[in-house]
């Protein structure tokens, strides 16, 4: 019995040493966020201050989780895998760690939350905004830096300005601008971990056209995990989609089956994000773009019912021969004027003038 305890003691001790070596690859991901006018002390008048949001993630790679997921995916999809995507998706959250936000008019140090998230909300005057404003989106953007205390680890992030007036195109990503086949778990896993991300034909072209024509800002909503944001950014940049804030979910490795995550609902997350934009801007118009393959029509119908004068148009991607899908949309959108919504399959089907 003493021999067994001795072997266990050696195993535990060595595991700690191994863990200390293997788990040392850390990193920061800063997901583009947004800033709105501060209306907390004004009433329907132009505020001179801004509220800025920061969203990011501090992580540490977990080789054991990565290997476990890799072996599972090899059995399920039986195709070559993108190792870096698996490493990021399975990384551990760095909880309650001190990080500092700087590069602006003030330095702020905060702690990551229990998901390793870097979340902070702060204000800047319009004069300060103008001092730091850079090109990016129609209204411009602010750059900032996050660094980890006592480590040589930094990242640069973007905050896109969204003023009270103007027009914002709020676009879903999966099966709206990026082919994912979300109705099939197998195809979703293949397209996420085994293939280069592929764009829906013509979408980047029409988005860039709208950006120029309407001096528009863009915002992206997706149920994809923020752990994979670096690869999503590569896709958006490669295909030349307009830049803008991006709003994603977070996968918790210890609390959920990763297969379940990819078929779970994104309804609540999208509703919350849309409410944030509409409640934080007084006169801005919004164009909502999504697909029929999940809950986008239900989400957009709900938002339209609450803000009918703020939603300029709704565009839903579906296949042209999907008659059942068309009937579903006509039911969901029965209280929305027919001139306010339309369907498309590729970017070439979308109108250049959204107000005609």
From TrEMBL:
Superkingdom per UniProt:
Eukaryota
Q: Which residues form a coiled coil?
A: none
The residues covered by the Phosphatidate phosphatase APP1 catalytic domain are 168-318
Tell me the Pfam families matching this sequence: APP1_cat
| Record GO terms (molecular function) | phosphatidate phosphatase activity
Protein name, entry field? Phosphatidate phosphatase APP1 catalytic domain-containing protein
Phylogenetic lineage? Eukaryota, Metazoa, Spiralia, Gnathifera, Rotifera
